[in-house]
Amino acid sequence: MRIPRMFSKTVSPVVADFGASSVKLLQLTDEETPSIVAAAKIEIPDEARGNVDRRFAFLAEELPAALRKGGFEGKRAICSPASSHFIVQQTRIDESSPLSVDDQVSAEVAGRMNCLPKAVVARSFPTPGSDRDRVVLAIARDDVMRHVDLFKRCRIDLVGVHPDQIPMLHSFNHLHRRSEDRSISTMYVDAGWGAVKVAVARGTDLVFARIIQIGGRQFDEISAAAWGCTNAAARIRRIQEEEAQASPKPMQSTEATDHSQLGSVMLRVGMSKAGAESENPRSRTESGMILAEDRRIAEESTSLAAVSTACPQPDFIEVHETVADELSMCARYAQASLGSPIDRIVMLGGESHSRRFAGHLARRMGIKTSVGDPIRRLFAGNADCIGPLDPSREHPEWVVACGLCAMGPKA
């Protein structure tokens, strides 16, 4: 006779973050202090990344196997579709209109999408201090149903669909428990392969959202042109060189200890004050800083040794400047809504691993900047890898998956 597991831990729904380059699957225990049950990552091939039909066809084959091999439990799932499916905009509600707020929002988005209002699924969030000004996040109903059908093939019920910006905020809810934390204005910048997703919040309230259609794809194309190889080969080499540049951190140990004592999950990346490098007479280029650090510890520079001086290096400055300009415009709009400046920037997404990229944005924005790693607190002292998650590394690209877990099915 089979005895039921009366005292086994309950688990949260499986969450799926559908990015442009990969799908991240995560499941946690359903407890006050959650821990990781299972994690998996599905890399999307280059030929399927730019084509929606090919991407869904690929995932229809790979997703069931990934869920089975990953050891995921239960029959419920929550997902965040790729940002290319969403429309994000700011709008103002007409209080004299006979239509409800939801109807006004749906009608406006439907006009932009050239479809009927009933063909749109839209959510709006009032800006703090103004019920008329709202942030609108919308997706076509057909795109939602494609994700529902995708999970049906896995015999799983999809119980929630959310845009990236909402779980991004929920990933850091635990940092806003005190009343004074709720007045802090934060810009979250999720830099992925396909786009840069921006969310500005006061405490946990969304103030501004935007999707910037620039990402790691442009870095791959520039690298491939400089190195004379395919985009896929350029991406692998670019990531390896960025990891080599980020590996030597002898001067950050004290700061890291201080931050861990404060219970913060955000890791300093040595770029905190914008303008500090330009005002400091000892300022140097990032490569010079790395080389100096290696000389202090009497070791050969691992980051520079991996780069051949005979091979031309890709120049990302134009892309960096474009993203910085877009973020500056986002900051100005958000500051006008807030009536106060933004206090900090939290870098997220796979491209935030690049010290060149994150450092350039920090200097241009003039705002204290750090890299967020919300998944670190979920390891709870576990030193073993769980799927693709290594406790010894940062994982800012898992922020949406973490936020979906924090939201739960009732959000």
Explain this structure to me?
- This protein is of the alpha/beta class and 411 residues long.
- The protein has a domain at 178-372: Nucleotidyltransferase, domain 5 (2-Layer Sandwich).
- It contains 14 helices and 14 strands.
- The protein has helices spanning 46-49, 52-70, 101-113, 141-152, 165-170, 216-227, 231-246, 253-261, 276-279, 286-296, 302-305, 317-338, 355-365, 399-407, and strands spanning 14-18, 22-28, 36-43, 76-80, 86-92, 120-127, 130-140, 157-161, 185-191, 196-202, 205-212, 266-267, 344-348, 369-372.
- Strands 11-10-9-13-14-12 form a six-stranded mixed sheet. The protein has a five-stranded mixed sheet with strand order 3-2-1-4-8, sandwiched between helices. A three-stranded antiparallel sheet has the order 5-7-6.
- A hairpin with a 2-residue loop joins strand 10 and strand 11.
- Helix 6 packs across helix 7 (231-246) and helix 12 (317-338) packs across helix 13 (355-365).
- It is globular.
- Mean pLDDT is 83; it is low at 1-7 and 248-309.
